[in-house]
Amino acid sequence: MHRTWFVVLLASLLSFAAAAGTALIVVCLTPGIFGRDASRREPVEELVGVLAVATVIGIALVARYFAHPHDAHARLEGSAGTTTILCAVFSVLGAALAYIATFPEQYAHGRRLRGAGRLLLPSLGPHRESESESAAIDGELPEGWVAEVPPEVRDGLAAEWRENARKEHAAIASFGQTLLKLMALGADDSLLAALHRDALDEVRHARLCFAVATALDGKHVRASAFAGARGGYLLPGRRLGLVQVAIEALVDGALNEAVAARILGRLAARGGPLTKVLRDLAADEARHAAHSWDIVRWCGREGGPQVIAALRGAARALPRRMRGDLPPAARSGAWERWGVQGEALEAEEVQRAIARTRDRLVAMSV
After folding, report:
1. What angle do CA 243, 244, 249 make, to 5 degrees?
2. Is 230 helix (H, G, I), strand (E, B) or coil?
3. CA–CA gap between residue 189 and residue 307 (Å, rounded)
């Protein structure tokens, strides 16, 4: 009788721990989300769902015990039963983290940097280009290419390329934070070296995007001091940390950078004055996406069944679609010749990438 109540108490405590732990994780990773526009999808709404699911797991365990007490008792006492329970809890955790990582449901060109429930981007300020900076991009842009761009389009096109430059600059910080997290988790030297190279790619990408914008409108501005680049939170405990890093790599790299690579590759294939720039950017983004899958697999190997369960939970929580914040004039695809995708191309590649990512996660094994 005492053992019976022990098992029931254990199941109840597991349910409470799952709910409370998930609540703490969501609050820690999304400070300042309360008070945001209620008309938009909010992490707080997902928190309610996460708590409900976690509670259901506990209730299901208790119900299972009363329905088949001897079988359930053996399950909970054995290591296989413990693994099953933990995998269920980690699956809920993975779904919650994937939701946070894809909030807002907005496609971001390349790797994201997030904080306080929003995307972080640097502000811009005046900049005088040095000789070394000029040499770094010398020959990347064809001479006289701006003459092919209609004058009425140039200012808007420059603003969009400058916005992409801000995202590329933020990606440098994102790679840096990921690298530090992987170091804390004991990642292989090969993963760390790859991330260093990827971050240097982003430095070059930002310079190129700023150079394109300057060529179009003549404004010499660059990213200024970026306080949002500081810090980066890693969940306590190695296994929780592995789950967090795996899902961040999944969304920011395996998904977002894969979409960017596909879009840029298709734009380059259509020809135009910026074909070489687009082709080079596409190749880099594809390599970054592949490195992100390396991180996901490493985390899965290190963390075992629980991390795999979290990734499968993340697969179920990925949004059905993500929409970029494109300028109205670009949505029809009218700017695609100059490297800015339209809505149809973007939506097609985003949905395709989400489907492929889900399939790969479902098929993943330890």
Report:
1. 100
2. coil
3. 21
Q: Where are the domains of the chain?
A: 2-101, 114-362
**104 prior amide bond cis, ω within 30:** yes
Instruction: Retrieve residue 271's tokens.
Output: 């020809």
| Residue 126 bridge partners (DSSP) | 221
What do you get for the CA distance between the two ends of the chain, in Å?
38
CB neighbour class for 189 (10 Å; exposed up to 12, middle 13-18, buried from 19): exposed
- When pLDDT is averaged across residues 288-306 and rounded to a whole number, the result is 96
Measured from the Cβ of residue 79, the count of other Cβ atoms closer than 10 Å reads 7
- 215's tokens: 């060529």
With left for phi above 0 and alpha for psi between -120 and 50, is residue 143 left, alpha or beta?
Answer: beta
Q: Rounded to the nearest 10 degrees, what angle do helices 305-317 and 238-249 cross at?
A: 40
User: Mapping DSSP to helix (H, G, I), strand (E, B) and coil, where does residue 209 land?
Assistant: helix
Distance CA 350, CA 187 (A): 30
Helices 151-185, 238-249: axis angle to 10 degrees equals: 160
How do residues 96-134 score in pLDDT, each as one tens digit? 888 888 876 667 777 888 876 678 899 999 987 776 666
Judge contact between 285 and 257, C-beta under 8 A. Answer: yes
SS3 344: helix
Cα–Cα separations (whole angstroms), residue 141 to 159, 215, 231, 280: 18, 9, 35, 12
Query: Could you tell me which residues come within 8 angstroms of residue 134 by beta carbon, excluding any fewer than 6 positions away?
Result: none
Cβ neighbours of residue 19 closer than 8 Å, sequence gap 6 or more:
50, 51, 54, 55, 58
Whether residue 191 contacts residue 295, with contact meaning beta carbons closer than 8 Å, is answered with: yes
This prediction has a pTM of 0.79
Task: Indicate the range of 21-35, 187-201, 318-332, 349-363 predicted with least confidence.
Answer: 21-35
